[in-house]
Model the fold of this input.
Amino acid sequence: MIIGAMCSTVSQATAQVSYLWNVVQLSPASSSPVLSDKVRFKTYLRTNAPETELNPAKVALFREFEWSNIAMIHQTLEIFSVANDQLIPLMKAAGMQLLAVEMITVDPAIQILKLKERGARIIVGSFYSDMAVRVFCEVYKAGLYGPKFVWLLLGWYSENWWKAVPVDCTFDQLEQAIDGYFSIDQIHINPKPQVTISGHTPQQLLEIYRNWTNHENLPGLELGLKGYDGIWAAALALNKTASDLEVNGTERLEDFTYKNADMAQLLFNNAMNISFMGTRGKISFDKNGDLKAMYKISRFQGGRKEMVGLYYSNKIEWLPETPIVWKGGHIPKDSVTVIRITQALSLSLYIAICCVSAMGFVLTCVFLAFNIGYRKSRIVKMSSPNLNNVTLVGCLVLYGTVLWESNATSTFTAFCQAKLVSLTVGFSLAFGGLFAKTWRVYVIFTHGTKQKKVVKDKQLLLMVCGLVTINLSIIIVWFVIDPFQIVVQQLPVKINVIDDIEIHGSTTNCNSHMHIYFLGCLLTVQGIILLFGVFLALQTRKVKVDGLNDSKMIGVCIYNIVVLSFLGVMVSLTLKADYDLYYGITSCIIILATTVTQCLIIMPKIIGHFSTSRVEDLGASRVEHSNEINTDVSTNRLHNEDHDIHTVTLASTVSRA
Done:
């Protein structure tokens, strides 16, 4: 066997020819990655690890703390760029993402700012110590340090390296910037007091060496420890080969010649398979003949650098005597945790609103059944039951408005359109019927006693249909000219500084480019209806014929609608960020307004109908005895089968009353 060389360039020159003489070559210290090529260096081993072996240790460190977003910054020198180039595929294979790779030539200020812009938290720095001082001065200025940032640097910097180069940052500022950085480096002596193959612990061997040198600090001690392990590896390989040859009984180790390829191959195989405890820990080789080295993981904390863990065989073992102290009490995250939430309607809220709407729907059906079943009752007949039916149908449509909700993108636009149509048509039917009834009373009592005026139900129903047609025409033109589109609205970002979380919320809405104009037209039409209703209610407020006039109740309905509509508009403008709250309040407003309206119109009829006939007759005959017959005749003529109203007879009767 050949022991050597220490320098990589010499090992490359000798190892690519030594196998031609059937010689096994073992180097204690060469570290070039090129020497791992078994095609060129067939019988070469080394009790040292190549520089590229630091990369798996880095990946293991990232995986240990669940860091997957990594940034890199290095000097534009091959010694650093090659190592980083080989680290990148290892990171990708481990499912890690490379945020940025910055290269420094002279001034690192711009590169540090770029790292900050990219949101880098875990940063691998590869540069000489003099450049490291300039880098961390800029790090301090940019604020790229503290409990949320972790730097991973080279492990071979000298003690107090940040004080070696003058920069425009103080030593205290630099210590703040570098505080908490990690480094990974080959270990030169096992920190554990494990007994080596020699029968001594690494610390005892070191003490023996120092006694031989009178404790003089001679150069090359670290290489000497590597050489010690190399000699043991060679001795064990030779010893195993001698035993194998003796068992075979063919030849002895002393019979070796440079032409003996079989013995060389046996010796090489035995060397590749040895395993023992050396001064740097367990010594064994991988398939490339490289040492499966143990690495030390160090951290700068408490103002000094100390070893906190060991890396060997793809595993990290943390040292309990030097625990890692994290600022803030928890492991830093590799990036801000961004949680993206598209606000969708809560299923439980939707079911609850549907249940309330269903109860209103049932109530409307009860009112509708009463209005149809007792349409010949005097008090129901006098309140225009056909128009009441139209109002109740409108209430049914309004209750159905709250059901048109969908979280699915495919049906979202269709449901938006259906909701707009049902809300508009329902309003037109419900309140159009009320205002038509009041219009008939207004026409009767605002004409002179000599003029006969007949207003049939057909005319009033046509009036309601006209209102519905106007609203539907506006909506149809809207949908044709400027159809709805799904618009995603971004909500204000919520930041949790303590947990390093950002919540990016968004809501999905239906919108169109000219929606403000079409919506304005619809609101104008509905506003005119409300104002018209107020006018009619005021004009007919003094009519005293019981059962005939609902103007007071209609006035209360209008007041209720105006207040709740104003509240609904305010909610629509201010609460869209919280879709559940927006949907809940607007649905409750629709249900409440609809329920109050139909109860104010129909409940008095139900109460009046089921009252005793004696009380009803007494309440309806608060006029002089001489005019009772005329009033009854006029009332019967008012509500005959065709619902014709003769203004002269009724007006004169009420006038006398």
